[in-house]
Structures
1.
Amino acid sequence: MRAASLFVGIVIVIFGEMVSHPLAQDVVPVLPPGLHTRTLERGNGSRIGYAISVPATYAPDVHVPLVLALHFGVQGGPSMNAGREVLRLLIGPGLIDLNAIIVAPDVIDGGPWSTETNEQAVLLLLDQVMRSYSVDPKKVLVTGFSMGGSGAWHFAGKYPDRFTAAVPIAGRPPAMAESWRVPVFALHSRRDQVVPFAGTEQRIDELKRAGVTAELLLLESPTHYQTAAHAVGLRQLVPLIRQIWK
């Protein structure tokens, strides 16, 4: 553990700004390639669990993309490593060609991701990952499935300076998307009866008319609960993500 972790206050450099996290007492360790499950102490007696996937090609002298992956709903109960599950089932296989570090936090208070507690925990974790690993700040993507898809819409809209792409999957878009800035590639299934695709289709059309880079990929077959089946569509979005990152 680095000496900085011994201090209650940690100052982090991100996107050229100094961001202070007075509650942070721990740091994210640099781990070998593979999928790992960890916890991050938040310094106020609480912690956030997370899974992190480090690509086989990772080297500390090369900047790599970073993906923040938000998991599906957990019915208001303990998250039970839901971050690891969405990473393992969907985000990892779907975005493997990006050779990105993928971090998937566990929701703290049962959700949604837009609560103040979850927001603070997720942003702290994101900052700490960027502090520990060699991340390209111009290639930071937020994605998620179902509740996590709604969370991806939320974080990209509220914190546009932190993300350079958003990929909400089977999530509800915000009621309004005024002043939207982040390129967004939404993924949805026509057979989704829990979160119908019409709302996403409408929001993407509005963003396009406003001049925002926005696309919707509609799948024909998965139901809402066939999480892993959405990976085929996620793989199809990789070229679009790479294009905007050039």
2.
Amino acid sequence: MKKITIAFIFFISIYGNLLAQQTPKTYTLQQLQARFKQANYTEKVLLDFQKTMENLREKPQLSEDIPGEVISWYTLNGQFSWHKTFLIEKDKIKEVQTIPKDENFLKKLNSYVPEKSKFSYMSDLWSFAFVKEKLADNFYLIQATTKSFNAYPEVPNDDILIYDLEYKTKDFKAFFLVRFKNTHTEKWTEVIE
């Protein structure tokens, strides 16, 4: 009986290793070259981008936000959802943040909502933020969805808001709110600077 158990465990571990080897967690250089227009990316950039995915548990989805300038990947498996965005400059990639962190941005957003519906930077309240386009003034326009803070999420609350936001940045450090709307409406509110 003991030999059968050891043999079974050995078989399962071999099978598990073979299965793990068959499902790569990252993309090959050839897959990245097929996915992204080669004229926009050097081999070095794509290999550096590939390295950012090495420790993932699953193969991420790829996004070419601004061809040749901003690329990203994301996973959506629930427990470990990740989103990373990279700016390409001079044949190098640099990870950048697409969700604001400064209090001035939050203060501006909260100035448009009722006191009971304030927004915060808690990560579970923000969706992935994707660079939507590059504006004529060299700002990057970013789009995200956020939910206002609820101290008791298990209790339904009419004061909780869910907003689609558009904001811009030049350096991915200072962000400026452009417009927002309640996800249940079609009307955008333009933000006055």
3.
Amino acid sequence: MIRLSPIRLIDQDGEQVGVTETHEAMRMAQEAGLDLVEISPDARPPVCKIMDYGKYKYELSKREQKSRTHGAELKEIRLGRSIKIDPHDVSIRVDQARRFLMAGHKVQITQRFRGREMAHRELGEERLFKICQDLSDVAKIEMAPRGVGRAITLVLAPDRPKIEQYKAKLAKEGKQEEEDLEKLEAEVAAQNAKIDAEDGDDDGDDGDDKSSKKKRGPKDDRAGNPVDDEVADLLGEI
């Protein structure tokens, strides 16, 4: 039923074969005892993959059923207990938010402040707007960053047309999206719980008592987090 030729072929292992004549791709699928499935018909050339079509349809129906059962939920991702969070950790949380959005969930991203960081809330706002830009290919802003106590929150909602385009792009590149939402939810819950536990260990310390800070040794001066350095400079700690 695949009428166009050539096609861009992905093999059963997810590896890109490249542009191939349709009859040749069908021969390869038959030799593997599998099917040739068109997964991105709007691309030119269309993207096809060698797979077990029956298994694919079964897994797709299970995902759709699960989505209808649970519906869209609001997932919270917290950016640490203060604005002194490593850029690598921020990128991990952006990836987590992307996976939630692609699964149809809204995402609330929370940036907390400690002590004198409250005087420099613009740093947290800049980070949240940067996250908006990073996720603009799959999301739209439902609630712009706003202050809530000693934190700023942002709510993003899935942009379904953009998500479909993004999925087509992944398929064209031979990449597979993450599907294990239960594992993702457990990972994010553990992150948030750790942040809450660290806040509890402070016993109300707002970070202003310099005598309570750990003294920096020679090794601490070898390499610093740029975000920590910028914040420390603003707070007069350098």
